[in-house]
């Protein structure tokens, strides 16, 4: 079985859990944590539309459509059958993910690997 862990800064903060826990609606928090549990249980077999490799990048996107928003949790597989969730964002349905969000995910992934 695969497991997931959250990226933590050098000071121990987890931007992803702060993002999820900072959502006002309980349903949003519940569904985002539920999506992560689904990824953990079904792992690489989860597939689309819930997960997709981000084209041109070295990580994946776990999607959760809630109301008018598309939530994205960016993660990458790491040694020992573990996913590392590095970044989270939300956009209005149908909007492209801004490049700055993808750049942030890449930067956090690189930092995690360098400090691991």
What are its keywords?
five-stranded mixed beta sheet; 3 helices; 30% strand; 116 residues; 35% helix; single chain; alpha+beta
- Which residues sit in consecutive blocks of at least 5 with pLDDT less than 50? none
CATH class: Alpha Beta
Within CATH, the superfamily carries the name: RelE-like
Structural class: alpha+beta
Task: Summarize the structure in words.
The protein is α+β, with helices and mostly antiparallel strands. It has a single domain, classed as YaeB-like fold. 35% of the residues lie in helices and 30% in strands. The chain contains three helices and five strands. The protein has helices at residues 15-21, 26-42, 99-115; strands spanning 3-6, 51-53, 60-66, 69-78, 82-92. Strands 1-5-4-3-2 form a five-stranded mixed beta sheet. A hairpin with a 2-residue loop joins strand 3 (60-66) and strand 4. The longest helix has 17 residues, at 26-42. The radius of gyration is 13 Å and the shape is globular. It starts with a strand and ends with a helix. The model has no long low-confidence stretch (mean pLDDT 90).
């Amino acid at each position: 079985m695969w497991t997931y862990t959250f990226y933590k800064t050098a000071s121990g903060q987890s931007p992803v859990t702060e993002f999820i826990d900072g959502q006002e609606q309980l349903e949003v928090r519940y569904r985002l944590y539920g999506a992560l549990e689904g990824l953990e249980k079904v792992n690489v077999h989860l597939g689309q539309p819930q997960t997709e490799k981000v084209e041109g990048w070295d990580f994946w996107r776990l999607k959760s459509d809630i109301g008018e928003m598309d939530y994205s949790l960016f993660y990458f597989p790491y040694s020992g059958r573990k996913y590392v969730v590095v970044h989270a964002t939300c956009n209005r349905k149908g909007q492209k993910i801004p490049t700055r969000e993808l750049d942030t995910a890449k930067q956090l992934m690189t930092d995690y690997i360098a400090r691991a």
